[in-house]
Amino acid sequence: MHTVDVTCPSCYEVFSAPCPHFDELPSDVDYDCEICCRPLRIYFDHSDVDVQATAYGLGDSGPYG
Ligand SMILES: [Zn+2]
């Protein structure tokens, strides 16, 4: 499975999260940080062939507001 490195908004550690299928992008998913286990959301999007992942806290405004 394809994974993308994301930075946790709570502990700022970097971890790899499984990326949704390319056809499903852009996608906004719930996830728990693998380092501090705090809940966060990850917004996946792609440009050309690269997938980008942006992690943000539940209380923060993400790309979807
Ligand atoms: Zn964390």
From the structure above, extract its key features.
5 strands, mainly beta, binds zinc ion, two-stranded antiparallel sheet, 65 residues, globular
Written overview of the protein:
- This protein is an all-beta fold and 65 residues long.
- The chain has one domain (3-57).
- It is 0% helix and 51% strand.
- The protein contains no helices and 5 strands.
- It has strands at residues 3-7, 14-18, 27-32, 39-47, 50-57.
- The protein has a 3-stranded antiparallel β-sheet, with no helix packed on it. A two-stranded antiparallel sheet has the order 1-2.
- β3 and β4 (39-47) form a beta hairpin.
- The protein is globular and about 30 Å long.
- The termini are far apart.
- The model has no long low-confidence stretch (mean pLDDT 90).
- The chain binds zinc ion (ZN).
- Zinc ion is lined by residues 8, 10-11, 13, 33, 35-36, 38.
